Amino acid sequence: MVAKERLGVTFVIAKDQTFTGLTICLDGGTFSNCRFERCTIIISGVLPISLENPRFVDCQWSFIGPASTTVSFMAAMYRAGAKDLIEATCNNIMGRGPRPSALGAQ
Questions:
Q1: Contact 13/30 with Cβ under 8 angstroms?
Q2: Looking at the predicted structure, is the pLDDT value of residue 53 above 60?
Q3: Tens-digit pLDDT profile for residues 15-27
Q4: How far apart (Å, rounded) are the C-alpha atoms in residues 36 and 53?
Q5: Which residue has the higher pLDDT, 52 or 2?
Q6: What is the separation, in whole angstroms, between the first and last Cα of the chain?
Q7: Contact status, residue 49 vs residue 29, Cβ threshold 8 Å
Q8: What are phi and psi of 5, to 5 degrees?
Q9: What is the predicted pLDDT for the residue at 38?
Q10: From start to end of 21-94, where are the E strands?
Q11: Contacts for 61 with CB less than 8 Å, ≥ 6 apart
């Protein structure tokens, strides 16, 4: 694992690593063929994340900052009746079905 700092922010670059029982913020990181076991995974949505062939085993997830705001907004939209939009978005993320249409499009 290599940690590089730029403008006061540390970026993690890891390849073929196993992380066990750690709290890891993925933001700004590049992880290739890494395994995360019983970790707490934190995503803030502030910086891009690069994941290539990751494996997550018994991990807990924590969305903070902008990522939390996005998840909360999507949940509110779902409860407010935009069920088709949110389900289509999730299906698109999973590689199933067509891309969601724009809000208000018929």
A1: yes
A2: yes
A3: 999 999 999 999 9
A4: 11
A5: 52
A6: 49
A7: yes
A8: -115, 135
A9: 98
A10: 23-25, 30-32, 35-37, 40-43, 50-52, 55-57, 60-63
A11: 40, 41, 43
How far apart CA 53 and CA 77 sit, in angstroms, is 31
Identity of the amino acid at 40: T
pTM for the full predicted model: 0.77
| Residue labelled with tokens 């935009």 | 82
Q: Does the structure show a pLDDT above 80 at 11?
A: no
Strand duo 23-25 + 50-52: pairing: unpaired
Share of the chain above pLDDT 90, in %: 75
H or E segment to which residue 26 belongs: none
- pLDDT of 106 strictly over 50: no
The Cα–Cα gap between 56 and 49 comes to 15
Among 20-29, 77-86, 92-101, name the one with the lowest average pLDDT: 92-101
The amino acid sitting at 101 is S
Nearest to 14 by CA among 37, 36, 38, 33: 33
